[in-house]
C-alpha cells in the first residue's frame, strides 16, 4: 500500500508539500499540484482519513446506524443516504446493529472515537441516552432526544389516506399491525390516525403490536397464519409492506380472494410492493427527499450552523 513518502518520492517533492496539498493548506504552484496528483493517481494512494481528520478537524466520514440492512425500508434509505453523502464529498460507514443495543453502543463509541463528522441514527434501541452524543446527529424516523432533529414522512397523511381506502372499500372488520410501542417514532401517528378515522365510521379496528425489532419475513408468515386462524371474519388488514405481503401470501394459499374478501393495504412503498400479484396498494415514503434533507441538516450541523427546527415532515404518496 502506497504511503505519503512514496508519493513525495515519485513527485520529487517533500512529504510536507504533499501534506499541504492533501490538506489544501498554503500556497502550492499549479505545476506542483499537477505533479503530486499524477503521483497519487499512479500509486493509487489513499490518504488516511482518520489521521487527516485529526489535523483538519474533519474526516469526511458519516455513520449510518440502522437495525437491519435487509429490511426494505432501511435498505432503501441507506442507498439514498449514501448517494446524497457522495454528492457532497462524504463517505458513509454503515452500522447494522442487528437488533443489538450493545452492538449499537459499540458502533456509536467507534464513530465518536474515530472522529466521524456526523451520525445518522434510525435504530430501534430503547435504553440509549442519545443526548450524550457529542457529534452532530440527525434521526431517521425516530424521536431520540429533544435536541436531535428528526426527519420523517407525513405519517398522519398516510394513515388518513389508508383509512379512507378501507372506508371506500366497504370494510367492516379491520386489523392493523404496528411496531413495538416503546420505540418512540413518528410512524406511530399513522396507526393512531388510522384507527381514529375508522372509529368515526363505526368500523371496528384491532391493533396488533409486533415484538421489538421483529423484521424477519419468516416470523411475518407465522403472524399472518395466526391472524387468519384467530380472526376468520376480518375483511381488512393494514400493515407495513412485508407484513402485508406475508398476509396476502397466506390468505391466497387458503383460497381467500384478495382484495374482494380481504382488502390488504401496505405502507413504505419500497421495491417489494411491486413483486406480488394481485398488486399491493401502499403508501410510498419519500425516500429520496428524506435522504436529501437528512444529509442537508447533518452537514449544516457539521459546519456549525444551529438547527432552525427539530422536526422535518415530508409528504407521502398513495400508490
Give, in spatial order, the strands making up the sheet with the most strands.
2-1-3-4-5-11
Q: Determine and state the CATH class of the largest domain.
A: Alpha Beta
* Structural domain count: 3
Distance between the termini: 50 Å
The tally of strands reads 12
Summarize the structure.
This protein is an alpha/beta fold and 319 residues long. It has helices spanning 4-11, 15-22, 30-43, 49-56, 72-87, 101-113, 155-169, 188-200, 217-230, 241-253, 287-302, and strands spanning 61-66, 91-96, 118-121, 137-140, 150-153, 174-178, 205-209, 236-238, 263-268, 282-284, 311-314, 317-318.
Task: Tell me what you see in this structure.
- With 319 residues, the chain is an alpha/beta fold.
- The chain has 11 helices and 12 strands.
- Strands 2-1-3-4-5-11 form a 6-stranded parallel β-sheet, sandwiched between helices. Strands 7-6-8-9-10-12 form a 6-stranded mixed β-sheet, with helices on both faces.
- Helix 5 (72-87) crosses helix 11 (287-302), helix 7 (155-169) runs parallel beside helix 8 (188-200) and helix 9 crosses helix 10 (241-253).
- It is elongated.
Amino acid at each position: 500500500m502506497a504511503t505519503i513518502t512514496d508519493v513525495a518520492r515519485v513527485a520529487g517533492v517533500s512529504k510536507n508539500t504533499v501534506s499541504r496539498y492533501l490538506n489544501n493548506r498554503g500556497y502550492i504552484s499549479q505545476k506542483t499540484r499537477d505533479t503530486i496528483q499524477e503521483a497519487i493517481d499512479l500509486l493509487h494512494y489513499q490518504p488516511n482519513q482518520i489521521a487527516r481528520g485529526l489535523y483538519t478537524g474533519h474526516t469526511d466520514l458519516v455513520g449510518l446506524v440502522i437495525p437491519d440492512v435487509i429490511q426494505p425500508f432501511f435498505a432503501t434509505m441507506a442507498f439514498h443516504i449514501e448517494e446524497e453523502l457522495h454528492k457532497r464529498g462524504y463517505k458513509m460507514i454503515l452500522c447494522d446493529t442487528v437488533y443489538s443495543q450493545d452492538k449499537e453502543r459499540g458502533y456509536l463509541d467507534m464513530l465518536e472515537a474515530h472522529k466521524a463528522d456526523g451520525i445518522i441514527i434510525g435504530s430501534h434501541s430503547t435504553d440509549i441516552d442519545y443526548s450524550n452524543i457529542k457529534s452532530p446527529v440527525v434521526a431517521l424516523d425516530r424521536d431520540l432526544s429533544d435536541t436531535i432533529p428528526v426527519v420523517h414522512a407525513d405519517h398522519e397523511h398516510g394513515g388518513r389516506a389508508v383509512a379512507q381506502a378501507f372506508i371506500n372499500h366497504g370494510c367492516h372488520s379491520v386489523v392493523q399491525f404496528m411496531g413495538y410501542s416503546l420505540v418512540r417514532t413518528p410512524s406511530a401517528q399513522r396507526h393512531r390516525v388510522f384507527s381514529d378515522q375508522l372509529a368515526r365510521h363505526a368500523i371496528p379496528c384491532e391493533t396488533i403490536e409486533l415484538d421489538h425489532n421483529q423484521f424477519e419475513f419468516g416470523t411475518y408468515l407465522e403472524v399472518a397464519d395466526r391472524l387468519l386462524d384467530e380472526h376468520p371474519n376480518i375483511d381488512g388488514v393494514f400493515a407495513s409492506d412485508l407484513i402485508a405481503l406475508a398476509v396476502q401470501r397466506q390468505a391466497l394459499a387458503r383460497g381467500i380472494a384478495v382484495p374482494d374478501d380481504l382488502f390488504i393495504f401496505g405502507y413504505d412503498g419500497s421495491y417489494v410492493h411491486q413483486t406480488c400479484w394481485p398488486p399491493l396498494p401502499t403508501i410510498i415514503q419519500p425516500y429520496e427527499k428524506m435522504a436529501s434533507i437528512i444529509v442537508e441538516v447533518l452537514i449544516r450541523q457539521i459546519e456549525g450552523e444551529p438547527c432552525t427546527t427539530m422536526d422535518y415532515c415530508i409528504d407521502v404518496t398513495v400508490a
